[in-house]
Design goal:
Elements lengths: L2 H16 L13 H6 L2 H4 L4 H9 L8 H14 L3 H27 L2 H13 L4 H5 L4 H23 L2 H17 L6 H10 L10 H5 L4 H20 L11 H20 L15 H20 L4 H14 L22 H16 L3 H28 L3 H11 L4 H13 L3 H14 L6 H11 L3 H14 L4 H14 L2 H14 L5 H12 L3 H14 L4 H13 L8 H14 L5 H13 L3 H13 L10 H11 L5 H6 L7
Helix pairs in contact: 1-6, 1-7, 4-5, 6-7, 6-9, 7-17, 7-18, 9-10, 10-13, 11-16, 14-15, 16-17, 17-18, 19-20, 20-21, 21-22, 22-23, 22-24, 23-24, 24-25, 24-26, 25-26, 26-27, 27-28, 28-29, 28-30, 29-30, 30-31, 31-32
């Protein structure tokens, strides 16, 4: 085996070992829900309908079909095994490390610097976010295709192989289809033409500068247009009125300075950096670093690796430093994944050239490199531990950032999902302290208070939001629910009707009215409300489950069809990304209504299995039905005896 192959395999092996802990990590309640755990299209695996959806959708404010297909492939083979999804991220990162080493070795012919750059890329803690976050698969996948494109371009430049040029173009297209991060790729190609490919001769300059890059520029321009449309559709693009150009330039300068600092001293890394006023000293220091570094590179421009590395770093950061502001994050560790390669190149090749003058310096450099890599691995292992689950991640984020409302929001949501309502309430209260006008938080706080048996306090929260946004149907529906819990049915009914008036395609008020009708014994009116809910949102999980529940529970009525109940329950199951217990319960009822008690028993067991531990005390009706299914007894009596309501 050749030396280069052995080094590449060693880099892959060590990277896999370093990132092995991620196989024990959970999915996060932080974009992982949009990409996998709450995305029923992705969870169905590689289907024709899913592939069509991936190619057309702007969901999650992005257009990246290859990323969607990669998540679908994971679900096809591994289901919702979080460790397997994380391991695929790690495989991509390890593969990128090997590709980077091979690329630099082929371009420069220097093994040791190429190996050091690849090792820094592999084990630097700034890159933990890309690898340990399932939703950031797009970064690793985009970089994989980008490095493959650079390898093919190198082959074209060194051997004049035209087929390699077209392969480079195809791989670049693949990179953009995974994430539009590499839109400055044609600029990167020009830098590599300058060094180390040495193509800037009078004979090749015009061809290299213009004609060869036009197809790459066309792909990049098309990707920019599609990305802008996707981000605008997701309401993620800030206007100049919301974020003036002066603020954008300040953020760009400050972010570059912070990225350099975190590359050299990776402390205080966080999943979310809150927007905050930039101190004048920070801005001045960042500007000074930019000017001094650029002056040094220009002064020593005969050392071409410095020019290429420094401009690679700056150019690759252009899409993500806020000049076109997407979202509200001023910076993010994941944004350095590809750009940091340039900084590593400039530093490593520069040190190797300077130390290569004497053997003594090279020995010192070798020892220093070993120490730096060891520290990187140790820091990466520590950083990985914070990404174990949503709680560990955002507790750490709150520990290293100040006034971070988004971290409190994420932590509150995670606690709410786990049924830890008191802890969730505390996080949302802290968010409101930091951002009193944060949209929708009072609504969430009210919902938690209702679950805690405090409808009066919930009403206060709902009305705080209603004063600012009186036309929001969900607020009227929530107020109606709280009033119904207080026994004020007339006022509750009026709120539900107002919610219906504001949005005719909103099913929840109809479901709430159906509950009231059932409680009053008005079955015909209840059935009409369920039908109205179904017409309003025929693909809503709760609507399908409610109608299926009602049909199954009334299957002894000749006007009801248990097979239809089963069909609707199965459709609801397709829409339930988290295997919600209600789905299995309703499916069990529908199976029992058709006389299929064996499948009814299986569904009841599944309903209990997926019921959170904090809610098992309320699962008595499901256990009662399970016992009836096992004894082939008239299970519908349990529905009536427990006085359950059709709407879940």
């Amino acid at each position: 085996m050749s030396r280069s192959r052995l080094i590449a395999l060693l880099l892959i092996l060590v990277t896999l070992i370093v990132y092995l802990p991620v196989t024990r990590h959970d999915f996060l309640d932080y974009d992982d829900d949009m990409y996998v755990t709450n995305n029923f299209v992705v969870q169905r695996g590689l289907t024709l309908a899913g592939i069509k959806w991936a190619c057309k959708t702007f969901y999650a404010a992005n257009w990246h079909p290859l990323t969607w297909l990669s998540h679908m492939a994971d679900c096809e083979f591994f289901g919702l095994n979080a460790g397997a999804h994380h391991f695929i991220n790690t495989l991509f990162h390890a593969g990128n490390t090997a590709l980077l080493f091979v690329l630099l070795w082929r371009m420069t012919g220097q093994v040791r610097p190429a190996m050091m750059v690849a090792a820094l890329f592999a084990w630097h803690p700034l890159h933990v976010e890309t690898v340990a976050w399932v939703a950031e698969r797009k970064d690793a996948l985009s970089t994989c295709f980008g490095l493959l494109a650079l390898l093919q371009y190198t082959n074209f430049a060194q051997k004049s192989d035209r087929s390699s040029y077209w392969w480079a173009l195809a791989f670049f297209a693949g990179s953009l289809l995974a994430k539009p991060m590499l839109v400055t790729f044609p600029f990167i190609l020009l830098l590599l033409d300058f060094w180390p490919l040495q193509r800037f001769s009078p004979d090749t300059f015009r061809r290299a500068l213009v004609w060869e890059k036009i197809p790459f520029l066309a792909l990049a321009a098309g990707s920019c247009v599609l990305t802008f449309l996707a981000q605008r559709a997701g309401d993620s693009v800030a206007t100049l009125g919301e974020w003036p150009m002066s603020n954008r330039v300040e953020n760009a300068v400050a972010s570059i300075g912070r990225y350099i600092l975190k590359t050299l001293w990776p402390a205080g890394l966080a999943a979310d950096y809150p927007p905050a006023p930039i101190p004048g000293t920070t801005l001045a220091l960042s500007a000074a670093v930019l000017v001094i570094a650029s002056a040094v590179v220009w002064h020593w421009r005969s050392h071409r690796y410095g020019v290429t590395g420094w401009l690679w770093f700056l150019g690759a950061l252009v899409p993500v430093i806020g000049l076109v502001q997407v979202g509200h994050a001023p910076m993010a560790d994941r944004y350095t994944y590809f750009p940091s390669i340039g900084l590593f190149m400039a530093l490593v090749f520069g040190l190797h050239e300077w130390c290569g003058i004497t053997p003594g310096r090279m020995k010192i450099l070798a020892g220093s490199e070993f120490l730096v890599l060891a520290l990187c691995v140790l820091t990466t292992e520590k950083q990985l531990s914070y990404w174990r689950n949503t709680e560990t991640l955002f507790r750490h984020t709150l520990a290293v950032t100040k006034n971070n409302g988004d971290a409190h929001l994420a932590l509150g949501f995670a606690y709410k999902q786990e049924g830890r309502l008191t802890e969730a309430l505390a996080e949302y209260r802290e968010l409101l302290r930091l951002s009193p006008r944060f949209p929708g938080v009072h609504l969430t706080v009210g919902e938690i208070l209702e679950k805690l048996g405090q409808p009066d306090a919930a009403l206060v929260e709902y009305r705080l939001d209603l004063r600012r946004e009186p036309q929001v149907p969900a607020l009227h529906n929530a107020i109606g629910s709280a009033l119904a819990a207080q026994g004020n049915i007339a006022a509750a009914t009026a709120e539900f009707h107002e919610a219906e008036r504001l949005n005719a395609n909103y099913a929840q008020p109809h479901l709430e009215l159906a509950k009231i009708c059932f409680a009053r014994g008005q079955e015909t009116e209840a059935a009409n409300e369920l039908l109205a809910a179904f017409h309003a949102e025929p693909n809503n999980f709760h609507t399908l489950a409610a109608v299926a529940h009602y049909l199954a529970a009334n299957a002894d009525d000749t006007a009801r069809d248990p097979q239809t109940a089963l069909l609707l329950a199965r459709k609801a199951a397709d829409l339930s990304a988290n295997h919600q217990p209600e789905v299995f319960d309703v499916m069990g009822m529908a199976f029992a209504a058709t006389g299929d008690f064996s499948n009814a028993v299986i569904c009841a067991h599944n309903a209990l299995e997926f019921t959170p531990a904090s809610q098992l005390k309320d699962a008595g009706p499901i256990r009662q039905r399970l016992e009836l299914y096992q004894n082939h007894q008239p299970w519908r009596e349990s529905f009536r005896m427990t006085n359950e309501v059709a709407a879940p």
